[in-house]
Amino acid sequence: MISFEDFILEDDSPIYMQIIRYVKRGIVSGAIQSGEEMISRRALSVLLGVNPNTIQKAYHLLEEEGIIRSRSGAKSCVEVDEAKKEEIRHSLLQLDTLSWLRAMKQMGVEREEALKLAEEMWQEA
Amino acid sequence: MISFEDFILEDDSPIYMQIIRYVKRGIVSGAIQSGEEMISRRALSVLLGVNPNTIQKAYHLLEEEGIIRSRSGAKSCVEVDEAKKEEIRHSLLQLDTLSWLRAMKQMGVEREEALKLAEEMWQEA
DNA sequence: TTAACTGTATTATATAACTAATACACTTTT
DNA sequence: AAAAGTGTATTAGTTATATAATACAGTTAA
Known about the structure:
Two copies of one chain form a homodimer. Chain A is mostly helical. Chain A is elongated. Chain A is built from five helices and two strands; from the N terminus they run H-H-H-E-E-H-H. The first copy, chain A, has two domains: 1-80, Orthogonal Bundle (Arc Repressor Mutant, subunit A); 82-125. Helices cover 58% and strands 3% of the residues of chain A. The relative contact order of chain A is 0.13. The first copy, chain A, has a two-stranded antiparallel ribbon with strand order 1-2. The A-B interface holds A 12-13, 22, 25-26, 28-31, 89, 92-94, 96-109, 111, 114-115, 117-119, 121-122, 124-125 and B 12-13, 22, 25-26, 28-31, 89, 92-94, 96-109, 111, 114-115, 117-119, 121-122, 124-125. Chain A binds a DNA duplex through helix 2 and helix 3.
């Protein structure tokens, strides 16, 4: 079951967005596999100290995106085929990297300097 | 005068935050220098198609952070010494890079793969 | 000096994000 | 079968974000 063990709340974006991001990244890494059960909405709300409705919003959106499947009464399950996984992987890698590169460019950081900085900070991240 | 020429609205974070980020990054790159006049709140609101109060919120926070100075009736001015500039540069580089590296790690991307991806995408960013 | 522009402040409204409390029907477990 | 857990829904309230319409006093420029 997906336990959200290493999930940490940040405060830059809405909580339900952070939950969606966490699940998507887990799917990309392989830590979350198709067929796995999600932790229940109530349990996750207690675990994160967040309102159940906020979790419901995240799960509902995940279902609308075709990433999880829910049937009333039972736990929700992750359900993604290889094509979906590759689609998620591609879009996340692209968007995250682009926004970092644009930040560096806007700050006038040279390519080599940016790469060197990333290389040096890798282990502490 | 700081004209916000290349400023583009994205929709992931609040507009007033994006404005603050834009000014800070400009200071780091040197595109925005201490002593320069800011575009007026009203003019910027027209330029971005955004409510004047939203601009006022951004400018007010920039003043609270000790980045601009305002006197009633005259245009606001950027006012940052070298120490402040270095502080901004350090925190922005650190935070932006850390969040990208964490994203890569959460997706199970190896260090070499991440660096290679960034290198390849540099020009299109 | 006047007119235009500027920063600042106020009041009102709308939507999004989050919390709170509760209810109902379905599934799983005991 | 009964209890516990589950997805789903509803209603209400708070805070943050953004818009809208004014107003006033200080500064700048004609």
